[in-house]
Amino acid sequence: MGNREALLAGARTCLLEKGFDRTSVRDIATTAGVSMAAIGYHFGSRENLLFQALFSLLDEWGDLAGRALVPADAPDLGPEQAYERMWDELLAQARAHPKLWLTSVELFMQAQRQPDLLPQLADGMRQGRSGMAAILASVPEAEVPDRTVRTLGTVQLALMSGVVMQALADPDNAPTGADVVAGLRALAKILG
Questions:
Q1: Whole domain around residue 13: which residue ranges?
Q2: To the nearest whole percent, how much of the chain has pLDDT over 70?
């Protein structure tokens, strides 16, 4: 592993352990086992390195979420049971990797402070909505109509973010897949 890769790995570790604001150049260099000057040489600044590490962690987070969202191989499940199971798997991933999930929140906070990050964050959100809509509609992503992405994808992404945050904030009272399905059913009843 070269210095660049070691720094990226070190920055990822520091982000998970300390967060963006508390991670120093010294922390990253020490974790990576390279000189502090290497950060400037390879990334230009601590912030650029941490942003690349954040997006790398977000990619990992997206992979985990995607695996949880793809229905488990259980053809005997009906749509409601498959959706409930998907939520249970997603919440299990959040419990297994809480720091990874919380790092995604850190990116949202940093994007508010660093406007240059907003276009990348917005692009990631568009991809997330599109991917979720495709998974739920069981069609290739290229075939999902824009309206479905804006409705189904948006609502699913909002639900996922909110439910996972609740589960991480209050693990003893974390919602289950059955709770999410029951809540959606109650909302549908209110809406008629």
A1: 1-44
A2: 93
